[in-house]
Structures are given as C-alpha cells and as structure tokens.
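A protein record pairs a chain with a discrete description of its three-dimensional fold. The shape at a given residue is found from the number at the same position. Here is what such a record looks like in full:
>
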Amino acid sequence: MAITIGQAAPEFSLHDSDKNKVSLSDYKGKNVVLLFFPQAFTGVCTKELCTIRDGLTTYNNLQAQVFGISVDSVFTLAKFKEIEGFNFPLLSDFNKTVSEAYDSIYHDWILDMKGVSKRSAFVIDKEGIVRHAEILESAGDLPSFEKIEETLQGIN
C-alpha cells in the first residue's frame, strides 16, 4: 500500500548497527528522516549516505533525526558505518517488514535478488505524520535532498 502525504507513518521497531532496538515512536516530538537504500557498500548508496553524513548539521539544525534503513544485517551495517564514518544510525530491516510497510521494496532486483529496499526518502513530523514521500524506481537515482530540507523547514 502506497504511503501518502498526511497519513500516519507506519510504526516500526528495528535494530541499529549497535544492536539497539529503535522504534519510530521513540522519536515522537522530533522530526524524522527515513532513507531506505538497497545495499551497503554499493556506489550510489555510499554516495547518498555520505551526502547525509557531510551535511548532518543541516538536519540537526532542522531538528530532524536521520535514519538509514536497508535489508542488510546489523553486522554488515556496523562495518559500513565504521568504514564510512556515518554519524547517524543505520537500521537493519533484515526481515523486510518495514520496507514492505513503506512500499519501499524491490521484489525483483538485479542479479535475481529479491526483497531489497528501494531507494526512498520520507519525512515524518513531530506528530508522526508523513510530510514527504519519495520512492524511486531506479536504484541509480538519488532522493531530492533539497525537497527533504524544504519539507523540514516548512514543518519547523
């Protein structure tokens, strides 16, 4: 089911790369940016998350908590985070439930891989309402960081 602007964001609980359980509801009262990405250690995914890493001050100033989400294991994400120096949490959707709930999953991807997170971006406001949703069909495309920032500016 497609995510629409103005709907309540689907609740979830996932483990981060430090093996801590993180729930969306833990961040009520704070804006949240969810960035689903296909796979750690791939070119476009690394570029996307490094862009966020390098501009995290902007998101902090806009009172937003950023999360990267993929179907990679917590162990893979921990290594990816360590190597790239990511300064925001990476969440493992290994069982694909959150990617499904956000309609952000490639059922058939490259090299016969099935069930890989689609590159997508969501902005969720302090009340848990979706204010921006961008789901990309091409894994080679990047989300619009400008629209994410504009949305955050508009809800602060």
Summary: The beta strands are 13-16, 21-23, 31-36, 64-70, 90-92, 105-106, 116-117, 120-124, 130-135. The longest strand covers residues 64-70. Residues 30-155 form a domain with the Glutaredoxin fold (CATH 3.40.30.10). The two ends are 28 Å apart (CA to CA).
